[in-house]
């Protein structure tokens, strides 16, 4: 028989169990924080009607969409080159959210606070660090008709809580407001069409550097005046160094019309409430170059950076938008949200050597000393499992050294030995694989002892 | 602007948040039990190379496969009707497991115990209760070269633990062994080819009834003798009513050759160990009609039935197979596994009215009494969140009655009121939405009080 080479498509991150456990811990931490902030879970199908996903038509998005066809549809397909398949895979969680809210509007209570942790699919060109299938972890608050800017302050509070708990080093949430930016550019005589180009350009400031950005603003097709560009550059280079500094720098801006003032007032309110949420001021700052690529943001925008690993770029971004689901409903649904690209983040942390030592979800391995005693081993395992301790039992006879090696390789913390001596004495011998210590525990004390040891491990984790 | 109708593809189960929470609870219970039994998590990409998924070629499976193409591939495709797309969506978790084990064989420790909880995709004809995208929750133990039949006894122990914790009523795990069946049929002169047909036929006994099955066995093309059919029917109608009864019924079978005896001995060992695992004997029984449709099972087979809802059919099935990954590796990898179709199970429980009242993941809603006091509300929420209590804050002013209605509608348990009176007295007024009781709690006692109340709620579930 011919063998098929076992392989995955390029652009996916498939993990071995120890890494999968670390990744699952990351997702659980994110989910736990989303829930603690009162966000409700939803899940949507990976497959959606293509016309739902591609309402905007054309552009980058459609070039990356994966279309889906069942075998029946494939053979029935009228093979006209212009005919697109009816189904596609979601490429983000925002479009499905818009469809979800529009479809279930009558059954939802607004402001609707949802979290969603699912995979998305993009037919990217294969490239290191680019994924075709990856997790997004999103939260959004959706208002009916209106949504207070106060909710914009909640996002940094969630981001702070998530990344504090993930323990991946110091981080900073950077804030800006597109009304502030556009209002400021407007006051310099930059037209509405130009503003969008300027936003996209200054957004690259931290990547490309000031000189490159300045050159683009001055050169064709923008061709802004030297004076305007000088003021734009001074504006977008604003970074704050404390809470008071952020407010002072906003007050110091000499701006223009209503849009600018609205942005300034929103940003000040958001800053004040972030502090009220208890976010330490070292964890948030103004960065007036941030615009976020997507045109649908209209107010507050966020990025999050690991201070010791600037090369990683933003690990959590988002912002405020005016209307979520205008393609599917006449209801006006403003919202604010953030997204963590967990697969890419995990990959980057691994690349940067920031992932801790892998530990197993299995906490105890019960060894097999004597086949005839298997029922006693199973009984021991059942006792531990009923106490919530994850336990594996060796079910086939084999050298004890090999059994210990299995535990070690799998990252199991404790190996339990229940030999004839132990059975006679009513004890179990536990070997702590991390400390390389061995000790006897009375059967009646076993669960309590393991719980104490495992809890310490978790705290020290 | 033209609106696109917000809708999902037929054959998907999209849930509103209260149901999504109940579904998530189900998945968490399943996952928790898989982990407690020492199974390790893996996840595989939804998109695989089509040649990996379709090694067996043709048949029912390929007719249900969803093929995937990026836009680039679509336009480049040589539109020859025979050319199949290169990528497809997984239709189960077993084929991806086989590919995973073959691909990562050198990095895995055997016996490899994995759990996997992910969605799978099948282009089924749209039909009530049939899903095109649904969760499977699988565990498998894979041996290298060999795997003791003892592992077959662990599956019912996991099934028992899962369905005990899901609390969906009394259930029974039914066991059989395909060696026992085939050996028995062989002794009646049923040829090897006929055996497969007979297995498929008797597997339908509980659905179609004895008369229909008997008629098929006697009629063309099988055309078995009356005597053989009488003995087959007597065999497949065996059901046990206790542990001792199961062993006695196995002993009472008058069988044939080696294959039969091997099956009998395996089944007896499995029964003995199931008891050693502590599974109460009311929860397992012989059902000698069970064969499972899939031809790749070779030994023990399982089904699980809700005793009070026989119409639901098996809610967890699986069995032993000889070689997992023969399509991808020359290594011999025997295994045993089970699968829970969680989406279908959830849907069936809902249809049968077996889902409890929905409760929210949000535990406390902090009301807004006075806009100026928002920082105090946020501080209160941060205190609760840091204590692990899921808390939502109303951020926009509105009638208090409307805020309570929002909590009620969302299934939030407690509403916290922090008005001027409460602030003066250093207390918070809590309204228990379930008990419809209201009481004041000192700020210093708040976390402790809520924890006690919420834990009681959980225990009372």
UniProtKB/TrEMBL annotation, chains A, B:
Catalytic activity: tRNA(His) + L-histidine + ATP = L-histidyl-tRNA(His) + AMP + diphosphate + H(+)
GO molecular function: ATP binding; histidine-tRNA ligase activity
CDD domains for the chain: HisRS-like_core, HisRS_anticodon
Biological process per Gene Ontology, one example term: histidyl-tRNA aminoacylation
GO cellular-component term (any): cytoplasm
EC nos: 6.1.1.21
Protein name: Histidine--tRNA ligase
Keywords on record: Aminoacyl-tRNA synthetase, ATP-binding, Cytoplasm, Ligase, Nucleotide-binding, Protein biosynthesis
Classification via HAMAP family: His_tRNA_synth
Subcellular location: Cytoplasm
Family: Belongs to the class-II aminoacyl-tRNA synthetase family.
Enzyme class: ligase
Protein residues bound to L-histidine: 92-94, 122, 136, 140, 292, 296-297
């Amino acid at each position: 028989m011919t063998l098929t080479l076992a392989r995955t498509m390029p652009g996916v991150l498939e993990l071995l169990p120890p890494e999968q456990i670390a990744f699952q811990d990351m997702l659980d931490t994110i989910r736990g924080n989303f829930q603690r902030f009162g966000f409700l879970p939803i899940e949507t199908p990976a497959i959606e009607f293509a016309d739902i996903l591609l309402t905007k038509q054309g552009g980058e998005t459609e070039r990356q969409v994966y279309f889906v066809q069942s075998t029946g549809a494939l053979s029935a397909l009228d093979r006209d080159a212009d005919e697109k398949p009816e189904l596609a895979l979601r490429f983000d969680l925002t479009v499905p959210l818009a469809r979800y809210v529009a479809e279930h509007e009558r059954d939802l209570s607004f402001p609707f606070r949802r979290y969603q942790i699912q995979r998305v699919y993009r037919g990217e060109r294969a490239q290191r660090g680019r994924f075709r299938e990856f997790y997004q972890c999103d939260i959004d608050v959706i208002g009916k008709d209106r949504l207070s800017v106060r909710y914009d302050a909640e996002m940094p509070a969630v981001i702070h809580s998530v990344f504090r708990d993930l323990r991946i080093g110091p981080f900073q949430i950077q804030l800006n407001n597109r009304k502030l930016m556009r209002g400021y550019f407007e006051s310099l005589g930059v037209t509405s069409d130009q503003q969008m180009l300027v936003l996209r350009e200054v957004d690259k400031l931290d990547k490309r550097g000031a000189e490159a950005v300045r050159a683009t603003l001055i050169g064709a097709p923008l061709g802004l005046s030297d004076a305007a560009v000088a003021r734009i550059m001074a504006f977008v280079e604003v970074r704050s160094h404390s809470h008071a500094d952020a407010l002072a720098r906003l007050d110091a801006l000499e701006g223009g019309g209503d849009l600018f003032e609205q942005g300034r007032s929103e940003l000040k309110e958001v800053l004040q409430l972030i502090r009220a949420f208890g976010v330490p001021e070292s964890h948030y700052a103004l960065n007036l170059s941030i615009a976020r690529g997507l045109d649908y943001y209209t107010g507050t925008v966020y990025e999050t950076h690991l201070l010791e690993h600037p090369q990683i770029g933003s690990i959590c971004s988002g912002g405020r938008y005016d209307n979520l689901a205008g393609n599917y409903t006449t209801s006006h649904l403003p919202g604010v949200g953030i997204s963590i690209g967990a697969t890419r983040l995990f990959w980057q942390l691994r690349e940067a050597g920031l992932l801790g030592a892998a530990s197993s979800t299995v906490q105890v391995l019960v060894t097999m000393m004597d086949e005839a005693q298997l029922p006693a081993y199973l009984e021991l395992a059942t006792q531990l499992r009923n106490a919530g301790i994850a336990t594996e039992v060796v079910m086939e006879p084999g050298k004890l050294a090999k059994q210990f090696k299995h535990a070690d390789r799998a990252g199991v913390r404790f190996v339990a030995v229940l030999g004839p001596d132990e059975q006679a004495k009513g004890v179990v011998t536990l070997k702590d694989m991390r400390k390389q210590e061995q000790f006897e525990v009375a059967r009646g004390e076993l669960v309590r002892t393991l719980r104490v040891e495992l809890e310490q491990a978790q705290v020290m984790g």
